[in-house]
Structure formats: structure tokens, C-alpha cells
Write a structure and sequence with these properties.
Blueprint: H1 2-52, E1 58-62, E2 70-78, E3 81-89, E4 99-104, E5 110-117, H2 131-134, E6 145-147, E7 154-156, H3 162-185
Parallel strand pairs: 6-7
Antiparallel strand pairs: 1-2, 2-3, 3-4, 4-5
């Protein structure tokens, strides 16, 4: 009986040492890559904003009430004039968050959106980045809905990727709601 107890203690100690070494190794790698990941994320957001509003000279962050989807918003400016707004949203898709930057003009209509990161199913959910799907949103205003027949504020889902399509619509609507106070205030 004592021999079994000693064996259990020995195995427990070995498992503890392996776990501790693994934990330290993961913490070390995380520390090395954390800044690089943040830089790449910022770079992707900046590139997306430049794509959405190529004529903008600056993007000024403005105060919003963040929620589970929207994290930040910017005014796109050419000189002193506001030409639109860009809202960062991360709705939850099939494979995780779909990080996107949504462009909204001064009238509160979608100009474009860019996906900066996603983990959707290749060939299905990743099609939310395709121009064919994205093009449906141009000129739409709140609320945007999914439907079988596209119309004024309705877009069609990607066949086989309804969850991803719904997530994009959810992100678009959250962005439109966020920008609404700026659009109505004329600032």
C-alpha cells in the first residue's frame, strides 16, 4: 500500500513540474509576441480605415459607449471637414469573432466595410470578405436585415454561411447605431 502512495506522489510531482515548465514557457512566448500582435492589429485597422475612406487625411477617435460588439469609433476627416465615420466591431460568427471596420457616411449610410480578422469556415464563412457580399451593404441604413430577396435595407445571406452573414449584419447594425449620434449631431 505504501508503495502505491509513493508512486502516486512521484507521478503527481512529475506532472506538477511539467505543468510549471509549460506555464512558464507559454508566459515567456506570450510576453515576446504580445506587442507584435498589438502592432499588427493596429496596422490592420489603419489599413482598413484607409481603404474605406481613401480621401481622408486623418482619423480622430471619438468617445462612444463600448458594448459587446462595438469597441471604438473614428471620424474620417479631410482637413477640418468630417467626411464620414469608421466604427470597429467584432460580432460573433461561426468560428469566433469577426473583427471588422465599418465605414458610414455623413447621412448614416454604409460606404464599405473591411474584415481585419476572422476564423470562419474557409470557402463559406470567409466569403463575408468577398466584394459580392460586401457590395450589398453599400448605401444601406439602419436597420439592415437578412432576407431571401434583397431590397432597400435587406441583403441576402451567403448560402451555407448564415451564421457568418448574420454576424456581419449584427456588426453593421451596431456600427450604424453607434455612429447615429454623430450623424444626427452633424459633427
Amino acid at each position: 500500500m505504501q508503495k502505491i502512495k509513493n508512486e502516486i506522489v512521484r507521478l503527481g510531482l512529475i506532472l506538477f513540474i511539467i505543468t510549471a515548465i509549460s506555464g512558464f514557457a507559454l508566459a515567456f512566448v506570450n510576453d515576446l509576441t504580445e506587442n507584435r500582435i498589438a502592432e499588427n492589429s493596429t496596422k490592420a485597422k489603419n489599413e482598413a480605415m484607409r481603404t474605406i475612406f481613401a480621401e481622408a487625411e486623418t482619423f480622430e477617435k471619438f468617445e462612444i459607449q463600448p458594448n459587446e460588439i462595438v469597441s471604438e469609433a473614428y471620424e474620417a476627416k479631410k482637413g477640418e471637414e468630417t467626411i464620414g465615420y469608421v466604427v470597429s466591431a467584432s460580432p460573433s460568427g461561426y468560428g469566433g469573432p469577426i473583427e471588422m471596420m465599418i465605414g458610414i457616411d455623413k447621412e448614416g449610410k454604409i460606404t464599405d466595410y473591411q474584415v481585419t480578422s476572422l476564423s470562419e469556415t474557409p470557402g463559406l464563412g470567409t466569403r463575408v470578405k468577398d466584394d459580392e457580399f460586401k457590395g450589398q451593404f453599400k448605401g444601406k441604413s439602419y436597420p439592415v436585415e437578412l432576407t431571401k430577396i434583397p431590397s432597400e435595407n435587406k441583403v441576402t445571406a451567403i448560402s451555407g454561411a448564415t451564421i457568418s452573414s448574420n454576424a456581419v449584419v449584427k456588426g453593421i447594425n451596431a456600427a450604424l447605431e453607434t455612429a447615429q449620434t454623430k450623424v444626427q449631431g452633424g459633427r
